[in-house]
Write a structure and sequence with these properties.
18% of the residues lie in helices and 25% in strands. The chain is of the alpha+beta class. This is Glyoxalase.
Length: 57
C-alpha cells in the first residue's frame, strides 16, 4: 500500500492525562467512544509535530 492509496476518515488528538479515569468519564459524557484494534505508527515532522497515523482493523 502506498501513501497515495490512504484515505483519512477521522482525526484524533492524543494528549497526556493527569487522571485518566476522570478524562475517560468526561469524554464518555460528551458522547465519545473508545476505538480498539488499530494498526498505527507515529511520524514526527520537521517542526516537531508528532502525527499518529492509524487504521482500524
Amino acid at each position: 500500500m502506498t501513501a497515495a492509496n490512504l484515505k483519512a476518515v477521522e482525526l484524533k488528538a492524543f494528549v497526556p492525562a493527569k487522571d485518566y479515569a476522570l478524562s475517560k468519564r468526561f469524554y464518555a459524557d460528551l458522547g465519545f467512544t473508545e476505538a480498539w484494534r488499530m494498526r498505527d505508527f507515529v511520524l514526527s515532522d520537521p517542526s516537531g509535530v508528532l502525527w499518529r497515523i492509524a487504521q482500524n482493523v
